[in-house]
């Protein structure tokens, strides 16, 4: 069998499997990519909310990263929940030395409204990690937090795209329209300009982990060597089917179906 492409996620956990590194690993697997995972914070959470958070000591995050990179380097890397500046500083050199595509999901708040990053971390993200990104995938509130201005209209979305590319120095940014009204439109900005993907908006409360899943699929597609545009195209199809066929798990805001895309689009493993 051909050696698989490998994707690494560096993020927080969700013991109920809907978000964080658990969702990322499922999404990697369903994309036909071998998944690796480094935990940053252990989050006691479920579909009802976040009950507790334990941030791992930075030495433990560093030693996990060493374990990965001393053995087999991934073809693409994603970071999700990175709660503090210290964590960012430990992760940054591994990203730089890898020279591989790097996706940042700038996770700040869980769908339940619980904060997953401290205030200083929020400010430092754009200094330490965002300039290294191949693609950043903020939702609207995250894009507002990072740019410092309100985003409601398409003009403001374009202004935000410009801010990520030209003020921060990210190579690409997808501003996700999950939090707006009407169709679910995602806006990609790169050197090639703007591209949008539109899907119908499903009227469901089961969107726990949509952002994690979307960015993990982009990472998996980049690990296969695909271009940013192709990666976002696949991720949009994947997340749309995952939301359409939610498995109705839990008492609250449930997870998406990480296996719907593979089942419906019949992915062939190499
Ligand atoms: N109700 C919905 N129906 C269809 N697509 C959605 C819905 N909610 C979110 N999406 C899509 O899911 C992906 C994640 O978006 P979003 O929910 O905004 O991210 P986050 O989880 O970071 O808040 C995007 O592609 C977005 O368009
Ligand atoms: C560990 C962790 N990371 C991220 C999220 C956000 O999830 P969403 O994709 O719903 O914004 C979460 N709830 N937990």
Automatic annotation (TrEMBL):
Q: Which gene specifies this protein's sequence?
A: thiD
Q: What is this protein called?
A: Hydroxymethylpyrimidine/phosphomethylpyrimidine kinase
What EC identifiers does the entry list? 2.7.1.49, 2.7.4.7
Pathway listed: Cofactor biosynthesis; thiamine diphosphate biosynthesis; 4-amino-2-methyl-5-diphosphomethylpyrimidine from 5-amino-1-(5-phospho-D-ribosyl)imidazole: step 2/3; Cofactor biosynthesis; thiamine diphosphate biosynthesis; 4-amino-2-methyl-5-diphosphomethylpyrimidine from 5-amino-1-(5-phospho-D-ribosyl)imidazole: step 3/3
What's in the keyword line of the UniProt record? Kinase, Thiamine biosynthesis, Transferase
Domain named Pyridoxamine kinase/Phosphomethylpyrimidine kinase is located at 14-257
Natural source organism: Mammaliicoccus vitulinus
The top EC class, named as a word, is transferase
Q: Which family does the record assign?
A: Belongs to the ThiD family.
| CDD domains in the record | HMPP_kinase
Alphabetical list of InterPro entries matching this protein:
HMP/HMP-P_kinase_dom (IPR004399), PM/HMP-P_kinase-1 (IPR013749), Ribokinase-like (IPR029056)
Q: Which SUPFAM superfamilies match?
A: Ribokinase-like
What does the record give as the reaction this protein catalyses?
Answer: 4-amino-2-methyl-5-(phosphooxymethyl)pyrimidine + ATP = 4-amino-2-methyl-5-(diphosphooxymethyl)pyrimidine + ADP; 4-amino-5-hydroxymethyl-2-methylpyrimidine + ATP = 4-amino-2-methyl-5-(phosphooxymethyl)pyrimidine + ADP + H(+)
Q: Which PANTHER family match?
A: HYDROXYMETHYLPYRIMIDINE_PHOSPHOMETHYLPYRIMIDINE KINASE THI20-RELATED (PTHR20858:SF17), PHOSPHOMETHYLPYRIMIDINE KINASE (PTHR20858)
Q: Which GO terms describe its molecular function?
A: hydroxymethylpyrimidine kinase activity; phosphomethylpyrimidine kinase activity
Top-rank taxon of the source lineage equals: Bacteria
């Amino acid at each position: 069998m051909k050696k698989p492409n490998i994707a690494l996620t560096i993020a927080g956990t969700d013991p109920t499997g809907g978000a964080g590194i658990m969702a990322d690993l499922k999404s990697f697997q369903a994309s036909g990519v071998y998944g690796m995972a480094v935990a940053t914070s252990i989050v006691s959470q479920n579909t009802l909310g976040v009950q507790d958070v334990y941030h791992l000591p930075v030495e433990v995050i560093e030693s996990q990263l060493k374990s990965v990179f001393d053995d087999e380097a991934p073809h693409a890397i994603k970071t999700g929940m990175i709660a503090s500046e210290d964590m960012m500083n430990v992760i940054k050199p591994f990203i730089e030395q890898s020279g591989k595509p790097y996706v940042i999901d700038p996770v700040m708040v869980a769908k339940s409204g619980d904060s997953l990053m401290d205030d200083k971390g929020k400010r430092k993200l754009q200094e330490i990690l965002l300039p290294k990104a191949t693609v950043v995938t903020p939702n609207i509130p995250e894009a507002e937090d990072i740019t410092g201005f309100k985003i409601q209209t398409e003009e403001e979305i374009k202004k935000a795209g410009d801010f990520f590319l030209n003020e921060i120095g990210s190579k690409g940014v997808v501003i996700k329209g999950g939090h707006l009204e009407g169709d679910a439109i995602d806006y990609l900005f790169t050197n090639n300009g703007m591209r949008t993907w539109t899907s119908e908006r499903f009227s469901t409360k089961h969107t726990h982990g949509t952002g994690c899943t979307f960015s993990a699929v982009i990472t998996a597609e980049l690990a296969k060597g695909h271009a940013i545009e192709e990666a976002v195209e696949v991720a949009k199809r994947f997340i749309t089917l995952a939301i359409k066929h939610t498995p109705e798990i839990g008492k609250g805001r449930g997870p998406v179906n990480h296996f719907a895309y593979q089942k419906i689009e019949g992915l062939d493993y190499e």
